[in-house]
């Protein structure tokens, strides 16, 4: 099976040739009831209103060019859906996708006084700790305030260590101001601190500040690295191996760059572990149609929450060395390890422990961020990447490339500095810092356990332990009837499920299809970030919903669910949320898969996973 | 197959090499932070290590980085940012009440009342509302819709995003983008990265770097033979050229864009930086709407603004926005999706932008200080713009247009044939040779005109006017002395 970036998931229709009056190539699986009507289409306003409210208008086969009645092509916009960058159209990013848009809309409706079966929308779709009520680390924010307004350095209420950190950061800024540009690679002294941090973390394995690039969040670094790797056409086109389930930044970036996405599947039965034979399978298949050059690993896993063993990392490194793949290690959750017996091992440390045969040759880039761990400072967009064994000429190109964007935001750089160089024993802020840090991490550990426990009490939900990171990604059994109804309105079954959960309970989760999953399995991703009492309520609500959902669709097996599906379709196309995942021909295929999958999730996966 | 070929028996190379990396990235050039700046950094390091040089410090006049040149931040802005960073300070009476109010309002718009939360990908809603109101005030009441505002990570981010949306087609159908020459090299770099076709139109140096529609037409007609021109980029006030476009000129450009079916991108990040008498900033949007519905309801446009320039010069915060006008709603949905992948622009930058578009008002306690600081910065810049032009025009072999706006001067250098030959001998473009020599001898870092583009056979450099007045004077005089020496050496 080919795994071109998003190509087989549909939704990406052949771009229409320039000048073509109608999209004859647009999918025939049109949900519009009548054939396109030129007169109607000449009415710009109609079309605009419709398009405003629904992304799927063109997908339903509306004409692409406005025509007047005499058939003369009137002037279309310069930039239309047909004349825009086709790779951008292929980008999908479920974490902020249609379901989140609907959640925002529901919030607005609530605030306008509309009656809903819930009082607030709980956004458990994204790892946004502060939005969930986590308090910032006091020391970090003190230093940031001092850097923002250095007059506060004369204020006696700030602790000395905060002041000395702020002074040090300001001294490395042009004109002693955070308002200056920095070196494009990041502030020298911050990169030095990052290097020392990595050395401490990795038991003394040396780290060169010249190999550190500060970034605008980890995403920025990841996209930049993928961009560098991109070359070749057709069978020579760069292929990048990513885990399924994956964090959709990867698929989005690959789609945009026109790279080939190579899926390797994590083993859900074995706590989402990574399996070398599966890597081999994926690679061998991919070599037939592309040039696989990079292997991306997320550890601890997003959305799957697994923590890789040292042995597994060694195997992966050996695999990358043998198959000549550049390794990209996304390690942004490195402090988020909760399960007993699990420990974070950095790819770099393991690489160097494997001896010079590996540490001198394997090209590795690892990514970190200020957004996760105990700090959860997403809004600052701080991060870094460390590059290992990178070709010097390529490094020069990398430095040039990042210079075009001038520099990462300086407050984010400053924050990164504090994360890698926090208060030390003996400093006035140390005790408080450790207290705050420990409180956050132990609460997360508790919530990880709670989530796994509660979800596993639900019949039809099986949840692997949340060993690390910030999410649970349970497998859900969706009744056949519900699957059919979802298909009828052109939705992925787990999207259908999550959308209904949102409408009925106000809980916003991301469907597993947004991350990728084995055909016929369904999941959702939920953050474990809400405060414990709120999380408990949330989990109970999910439980109730799931039971009710299952009952509804099993009970309604004999009688068609009537208006429910239609109602959903109406609402969603009204709000531009409808997702037709699959064009024309694949409907039958999907049906087959649905049938097959259903039997799988009922028989094999179910019992093995429920704990 | 390709894999085997790559592996086949040959000594094991790296996965990622200059030969097999992204060819578009290789074509990217960005002179503002190019080889000359790298050399400047190296020299700074050498100075620190005690290496003897004919100067004691490197003066980086290569980039529009106001704070690095000693400009002080606006007090009110930084007070609010400190309050947002550490809300415990809201209890502190040292902070004025208007700063506290602004901080509370921003925090209330943040998830969990923390600037550490992600925001909507398009930017915090209340900030977009403030931006829209700012644009309405600026443009004499022409309505602005917050839904058409996208906050960005500096203006560069938004410019690259817009260009990315616009690129499509292959071969002769490939998107072409018209950019001025000289240009700000972000444009050429982004176009190289996106493998779009760069279409050069030349500004008229004889007419104070004026934009001439006949020249636009010439370059468009030529370009149509080999690509599909779809976009026209304008920088006003100009970078690196410092011209400020007249209202008439903007109207002509808009008419041209409509006629030729081009998407307009108006880079207006220097909108407060207008110094010359008789010059005034006119936003493209305002002029567009004043031209009536025939234009205002059809011409597609994006305009860009930033926290990095004007009187605030807060480059490090990477704040900015773009306003899109007449954009196809389906494309807009794609744009929203695209920006969502990067989650959100940095919140401190968003907060700062909010303050820029919603500064202290006459009845608020911080107003006086704010106005004093703002006026002082802009007046000093105006003075430095004049000073620069004056001194450079006394140098034989320099021709310097008035710095009507923005932050740079882009004088033309008369280089002797001997100097040109010498540069070629060293494998350098003559103005790079000149600037490199200036750096080595005087410690002054400028950017050669070739990094921005210039007419064949002409040579320039870009210098910021940002150093404090006395230092600027010193720099200008050093450059003059150097030029005289250089001219003598190669006469």
Automatic annotation (TrEMBL), chain A:
The keyword Membrane does not apply. Pathway: Amino-acid degradation; L-alanine degradation via transaminase pathway; pyruvate from L-alanine: step 1/1. Pfam families: Aminotran_1_2. It catalyses: L-alanine + 2-oxoglutarate = pyruvate + L-glutamate. Residues 158-541 form the Aminotransferase class I/classII large domain. Keywords: Aminotransferase, Pyridoxal phosphate, Transferase. InterPro entries: ALAT1/2-like (IPR045088), Aminotransferase_I/II_large (IPR004839), PyrdxlP-dep_Trfase (IPR015424), PyrdxlP-dep_Trfase_major (IPR015421), PyrdxlP-dep_Trfase_small (IPR015422). PANTHER family: ALANINE AMINOTRANSFERASE, ALANINE AMINOTRANSFERASE 1. Homodimer. This is alanine transaminase. It comes from Pleuronectes platessa (European plaice).
UniProtKB/TrEMBL annotation, chain B:
CDD domains: AAT_like (cd00609). GO terms for molecular function: L-alanine:2-oxoglutarate aminotransferase activity; pyridoxal phosphate binding. One of its GO terms (cellular component) is cytoplasm. Its EC number is 2.6.1.2. Keywords: Aminotransferase, Pyridoxal phosphate, Transferase. Its cofactor is pyridoxal 5'-phosphate. Pathway: Amino-acid degradation; L-alanine degradation via transaminase pathway; pyruvate from L-alanine: step 1/1. It catalyses: L-alanine + 2-oxoglutarate = pyruvate + L-glutamate. It is an enzyme of class 2 (transferase). Homodimer. Catalyzes the reversible transamination between alanine and 2-oxoglutarate to form pyruvate and glutamate. This is alanine transaminase. It comes from Pleuronectes platessa (European plaice).
């Amino acid at each position: 099976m080919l795994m071109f970036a998003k190509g087989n998931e549909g939704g990406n229709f052949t771009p229409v040739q320039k000048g073509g009056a109608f999209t004859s190539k647009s999918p025939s699986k049109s949900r519009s009831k009548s054939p396109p009507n030129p007169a109607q289409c000449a009415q710009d306003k109609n079309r605009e209103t419709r398009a405003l409210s629904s992304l799927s208008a063109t997908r339903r086969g509306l004409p692409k060019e406005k025509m007047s009645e005499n058939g003369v092509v009137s002037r279309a916009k310069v930039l239309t859906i047909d004349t825009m960058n086709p790779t951008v159209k292929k980008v999908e990013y479920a974490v902020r996708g249609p379901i989140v848009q609907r959640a925002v809309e529901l919030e607005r409706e609530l605030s306008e006084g509309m009656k809903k079966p819930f009082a607030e929308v709980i956004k458990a779709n994204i790892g946004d700790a502060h939005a969930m009520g986590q308090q910032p680390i006091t020391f970090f924010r003190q230093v940031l305030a001092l850097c923002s307004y250095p007059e506060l350095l004369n204020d006696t209420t700030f602790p000395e260590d905060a002041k000395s950190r702020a002074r040090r950061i300001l001294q490395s800024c042009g004109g002693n101001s955070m308002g200056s540009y920095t070196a494009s690679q990041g502030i020298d002294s911050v990169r030095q601190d990052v290097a020392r941090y990595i050395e401490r973390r990795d038991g003394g394995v040396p780290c060169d500040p010249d190999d550190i690039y500060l970034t605008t969040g980890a995403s920025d670094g990841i996209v930049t690295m993928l961009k560098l790797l991109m070359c070749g056409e057709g069978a020579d086109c760069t292929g990048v191996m990513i885990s399924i389930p994956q964090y959709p930044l990867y698929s989005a970036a690959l789609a945009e760059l026109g790279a080939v996405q190579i899926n390797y599947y994590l083993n859900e039965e074995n706590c989402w572990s990574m399996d070398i034979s599966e890597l081999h399978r994926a690679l061998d298949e991919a070599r037939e149609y592309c040039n696989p050059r990079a292997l991306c690993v997320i550890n601890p896993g997003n959305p799957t929450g697994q923590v890789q063993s040292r042995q597994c990392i060694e195997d992966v490194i050996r695999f990358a060395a043998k198959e000549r793949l550049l390794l990209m290690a996304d390690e942004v959750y490195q402090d988020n390890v909760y399960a007993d017996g699990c420990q974070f091992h950095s790819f770099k440390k393991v690489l160097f422990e494997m001896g010079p045969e590996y540490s001198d040759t394997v090209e590795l880039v690892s990514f970190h961020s200020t957004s996760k761990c105990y700090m959860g400072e997403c809004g600052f967009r701080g991060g870094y990447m460390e590059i290992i064994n990178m070709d010097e000429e390529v490094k020069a190109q990398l430095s040039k490339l990042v210079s075009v964007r001038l520099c990462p935001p300086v407050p984010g750089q400053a924050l990164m500095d504090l994360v890698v160089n926090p208060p030390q024993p003996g400093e006035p802020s140390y005790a408080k810092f450790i207290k705050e840090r420990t409180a956050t991490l132990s609460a997360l550990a508790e919530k990880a356990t709670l989530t796994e426990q509660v979800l596993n009490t639900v019949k039809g939900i099986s949840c692997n332990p949340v060993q690390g990171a910030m999410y649970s990604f349970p497998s859900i059994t969706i009744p056949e009837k519900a699957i059919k109804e979802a298909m009828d309105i052109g939705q992925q079954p787990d999207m259908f499920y999550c959308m209904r959960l949102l409408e009925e309970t106000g809980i916003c989760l991301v469907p597993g299809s947004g991350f990728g999953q084995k055909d016929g399995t369904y999941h959702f991703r939920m953050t474990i970030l809400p405060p414990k009492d709120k999380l408990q309520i949330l989990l109970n609500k999910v439980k109730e919903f799931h039971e009710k959902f299952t009952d509804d669709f099993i009970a309604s097996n004999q009688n068609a669910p009537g208006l429910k599906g239609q109602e959903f379709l109406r609402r969603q196309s009204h709000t531009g949320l409808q997702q037709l995942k699959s064009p024309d021909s694949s409907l039958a295929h999907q049906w087959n898969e649905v049938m097959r999958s259903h039997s799988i999730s009922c028989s094999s996966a179910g019992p093995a996973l429920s704990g | 197959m390709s894999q085997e070929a790559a592996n086949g028996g040959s000594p094991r190379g790296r996965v990622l090499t200059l030969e097999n990396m992204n060819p578009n990235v290789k074509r990217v050039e960005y002179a503002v932070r190019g080889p000359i700046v790298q050399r400047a950094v190296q020299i700074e390091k050498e100075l620190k290590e005690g290496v003897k040089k004919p100067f004691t410090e490197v003066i980086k006049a290569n980039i529009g980085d106001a704070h690095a040149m000693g400009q002080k931040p606006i007090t009110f802005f930084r007070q609010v940012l400190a309050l947002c960073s550490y809300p415990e300070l809201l209890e502190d009476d040292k902070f004025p009440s208007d700063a506290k109010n602004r901080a509370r309002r921003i925090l209330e718009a943040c998830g969990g009342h923390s600037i550490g939360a992600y925001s909507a990908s398009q930017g915090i809603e209340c900030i977009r509302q403030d931006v829209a109101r700012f644009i309405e005030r600026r443009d004499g009441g022409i309505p602005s819709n917050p839904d058409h505002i996208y906050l960005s990570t500096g203006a560069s981010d938004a410019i690259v995003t817009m260009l990315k949306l616009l690129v499509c087609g292959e071969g002769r159908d490939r998107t072409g983008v018209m950019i001025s020459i000289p240009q700000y090299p972000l444009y050429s770099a982004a176009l190289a990265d996106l493998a779009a076709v760069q279409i050069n139109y030349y500004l008229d140096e004889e007419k104070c770097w004026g934009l001439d529609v006949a020249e636009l037409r010439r370059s468009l007609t030529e370009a149509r033979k080999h690509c599909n021109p779809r976009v026209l980029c304008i920088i006003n006030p100009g970078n690196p050229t410092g011209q400020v476009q007249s209202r008439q000129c903007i109207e002509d450009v808009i008419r041209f864009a409509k006629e030729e079916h081009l998407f307009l991108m108006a880079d207006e990040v220097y909108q407060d930086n207008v110094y010359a008498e008789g010059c005034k900033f006119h936003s493209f949007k305002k002029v567009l709407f004043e031209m009536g519905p025939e234009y205002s309801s059809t011409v597609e446009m994006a305009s860009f603004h930033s926290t990095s320039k004007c009187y605030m010069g807060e480059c490090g915060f990477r704040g900015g926005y773009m306003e899109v006008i007449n954009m196809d709603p389906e494309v807009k949905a794609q744009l929203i999706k695209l920006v969502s992948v990067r989650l959100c622009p940095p919140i401190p930058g968003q907060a700062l932008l909010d303050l820029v578009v919603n500064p202290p008002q006459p009845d608020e306690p911080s107003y006086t200080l704010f106005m004093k600081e703002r006026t002082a910065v802009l007046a000093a810049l105006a003075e430095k713009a004049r000073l620069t032009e004056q001194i450079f025009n006394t140098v034989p072999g320099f021709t310097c247009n008035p710095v009507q706006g923005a932050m740079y001067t882009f004088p033309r250098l008369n280089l002797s044939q001997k100097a040109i030959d010498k540069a070629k001998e060293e494998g350098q473009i003559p103005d790079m040779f000149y600037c490199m020599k200036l750096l080595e001898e005087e410690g002054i870092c400028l950017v050669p005109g070739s990094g921005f583009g210039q007419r064949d056979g002409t040579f320039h450099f870009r210098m910021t006017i940002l150093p404090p007045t006395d230092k600027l004077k010193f720099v200008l005089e050093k450059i003059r002395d150097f030029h005289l020496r250089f001219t003598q050496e190669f006469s």
